[in-house]
Design goal:
One of its GO terms (molecular function) is carbon-carbon lyase activity. This is Tryptophanase. Its cofactor is pyridoxal 5'-phosphate. About 40% of the residues lie in helices and about 10% in strands. It is an alpha/beta fold. It folds into two domains: about 180 residues, Aspartate Aminotransferase, domain 1 (Alpha-Beta Complex), CATH 3.90.1150.10; about 250 residues, Type I PLP-dependent aspartate aminotransferase-like (Major domain) (Aspartate Aminotransferase, domain 2, 3-Layer(aba) Sandwich), CATH 3.40.640. α12 packs parallel to α16.
Length: about 475
């Protein structure tokens, strides 16, 4: 008999979590104005809101924290991280920041100006926010297969080269500061980009003189999918694949809270020293001196170890196996999800799950609230709320995909927790016709509204 899969680590410390009642959760979500971001952590049983900064660090990372150098300038921890970035990712220059959106803010302050056009593959919410805040436009060039949740295309994060060239050929190069390739592509379902596509995007971009920038939050998960799904790389190590991936980028931003396996931190890395000099001005203004940016020395130490661990040994198999475990359980029960299962999260197709709820009533948010009420599980809407309003018309943008994202923290929950999530969704699926309304907005911010939006039951605003 073949031995079953088991995690290649054991648990050394545990954190208690509280099991609430449905009545408690009903009152808590009402007090939170039906926005799951507003819940207190102790009001959540299983927290799948994000995998960003919520994972468990290894014993080697904790040991590295104890040797952090907190010198304001010239910290040895900075040089440990600099060496890791050079050796693993191949970039000569980098600037530490406190997280990924800070890296975007610094880099885009150099590169993006009003009326610019920034193509990419389903830009992440903060990426699009930083672009549109500067009165530029983000253009989605993702392949069409990404928007068919039943398609089994192995690389749904790929950019459509025809769409990309259409952007390049209809705008002057000086109006296109970069193309952004998100690895893996979060907004389309944690879907990977193939090595061939990275190579082709690089070749096309160099033809038009456009910079290639990777949003690299989940670069290691992307490398794992390349190893598993591209025959040419079956026998390559993750480190070898990562090195080739980044050979096709001029610069990168990183939210280290994902594939850095740390609780805080980020960075910008680049191959051009002149870009480093320009970005340094904004990094010092927004983040801190260049050898610490927005990070403590101890966190830079932990990140240097994390970048090595995420590209070595057992980590990726354990990580992606658990995400697949939850996804396959939902598929088995007929619950519609984005296929194939992505690297960091399971994305439930809310339109197919709650198709009778009007799109104006925020279908994915409605499903997220139902899941919290059912079992105290917190997910996040990746749909109309996140898509925000058109900056010119101020009308809602209705994306092709309306998803409930269940992002799984790294090395944090067991498969028993995944079973609870799966059964909770099955219970809701079985009674889905009873959910006869969604929600409407009471109050919202002018940009990236999903973080702070206040909602109420839509039935209150319906005409009798």
């Amino acid at each position: 008999m073949e031995l079953p899969f088991a995690e290649s680590y054991k648990i050394k410390m545990v954190e208690p979590i509280y099991k609430s009642t449905r009545e408690q959760r009903k009152e808590w979500i009402k007090q939170a104005n039906y926005n799951l971001f507003n819940l207190r952590s102790e009001q959540v049983f299983i927290d799948l809101l994000t995998d960003s900064g919520t994972g468990a660090m290894s014993q080697n990372q904790w040991a590295a924290i104890m040797t952090g150098d907190e010198s304001y300038a010239g910290s040895s921890s900075y040089y440990h991280l600099k060496d890791a970035i050079k050796n693993i990712l191949g970039f000569d220059y980098f600037l530490p920041t406190h997280q990924g959106r800070a890296a975007e803010n610094v880099l885009f302050s150099v590169l993006v100006k009003e009326d610019d056009v920034v193509p990419g593959n389903s830009h992440f919410d903060t990426t699009k926010g930083h672009i549109e805040y500067r009165k530029a436009s983000a253009v989605d060039c993702t392949i069409d297969e990404a928007f068919d949740t039943e398609s089994l295309h192995p690389f749904k994060g790929n950019l459509d080269l025809n769409k990309l060239e259409a952007v390049y050929s209809t705008h002057p190069a000086e109006q296109i500061p970069m193309v952004i390739v998100t690895l893996t592509c979060n907004t389309s379902g944690g879907q990977p980009v193939s090595m061939q596509n990275l190579r082709d995007v690089h070749t096309l971009s160099k033809k038009y003189g456009i910079k290639v920038v990777f949003d690299s939050a989940r670069f290691a998960e992307n490398a794992w999918f390349i190893q598993q799904r591209e025959d040419e790389y079956r026998n390559s190590t993750i480190k070898e694949i990562v090195a080739e991936m980044f050979s096709y980028a001029d610069a990168m931003t990183m939210s280290s809270k994902k594939d850095g396996i740390v609780n805080i931190g980020g960075f910008i890395a680049m191959k051009d020293e002149e870009l480093l000099k320009q970005a340094s001005v904004f990094n010092i203004m927004f983040e801190g001196f260049n050898t610490y940016g927005g990070m403590a020395g101890r966190d830079m130490n932990a990140l240097a170890v994390g970048l090595d661990e995420v590209t070595t040994g057992y980590y990726l198999e354990n990580r992606i196996q658990q995400v697949a475990y939850l996804g396959n359980k939902l598929i088995e029960w007929g619950i519609p999800v984005q296929k194939p299962i992505g690297g960091h999260a399971v994305f439930v197709d809310a339109k197919k799950f709650l198709g009778h709820v009007p799109k104006e009533e925020y279908i994915a948010q409605t499903l997220a609230i139902e899941l919290y009420l059912e079992a105290g599980v917190r997910g996040v809407e990746v749909g109309t709320l996140l898509a925000d309003r058109d900056p010119k018309t101020r009308e809602n943008r209705y994306p092709k995909l309306e998803m409930l994202r269940l992002a799984i923290p790294r090395r944090t929950y067991t498969n028993n927790h995944m079973d609870v999530v799966a059964v909770a969704l099955k219970n809701i699926f079985d009674r889905r016709e009873e959910i006869d309304h969604g929600y409407r907005i009471k109050k919202e911010a002018p940009i990236m509204r999903h973080f702070s939006v206040e909602l109420e039951h839509a039935e209150k605003g319906r005409k009798k």
